[in-house]
Specification:
- The protein is of the alpha+beta class.
- It is 27% helix and 35% strand.
- The chain has 3 helices and 8 strands; from the N terminus they run αββββααββββ.
- Strands 1-2-3-4-5-6-7-8 form an 8-stranded mixed beta sheet.
- The radius of gyration is 16 Å and the shape is globular.
- The two termini are 25 Å apart.
Length: 152
């Protein structure tokens, strides 16, 4: 709560960052977190999953909004979320120190790769019993995992 208050006051007092919400045909709750330093600006959107709960997508698109490639990446991932959970389960299992199946994982969020290109690096965050695991993806395959709160 204090962190949120500090961020709110810092944003308003400095004028370096701002928020803007827009309507979109696919994404829900699409918000742009602008920043004078464009590298720090991003979009946050809820993605309607084909099965299961929605998940959050973080997109590095400019102020004009998510690109068609970003949207396509999210659409495809939304239909394959259970498969992604299965493919990441063995890495999460090692980090959790116990056996984990994909059905136990809930996709929380993704960082959409540059230009929606699955061959570029990106991350997927999973919830396992209120513990978050960030899986690093390369060429669409899981390569590393960090349990939130661990040095990584």
């Amino acid at each position: 709560m204090l962190k949120s208050l500090f961020q709110f006051l810092n944003r308003d007092l400095t004028g370096r960052s701002w928020e803007r919400e827009i309507a979109h045909d696919y994404f829900t709750n699409l918000v742009y977190f602008g920043n004078k330093d464009r590298k720090r600006a991003y979009w946050e959107a809820e993605v309607p999953a084909a099965t299961g709960p929605t998940f959050v997508a973080y997109l590095q698109s400019g102020p004009e909004g998510p690109s068609p490639a970003d949207e396509q990446f999210c659409r495809e991932l939304a239909t394959k979320a259970p498969d992604l959970c299965e493919r990441c389960a063995s890495l999460v299992s090692r980090a959790a120190g116990r056996s984990v199946t994909g059905s136990l994982l809930r996709l929380e969020s993704i960082e959409v790769p540059e230009n929606g290109d699955i061959t570029k690096p990106w991350e997927a965050t999973f919830d396992l019993n209120d513990q978050l695991f960030v899986v690093r993806m390369q060429h669409g395959e899981p390569t590393a995992v960090v349990r939130e709160g661990d040095a990584g």
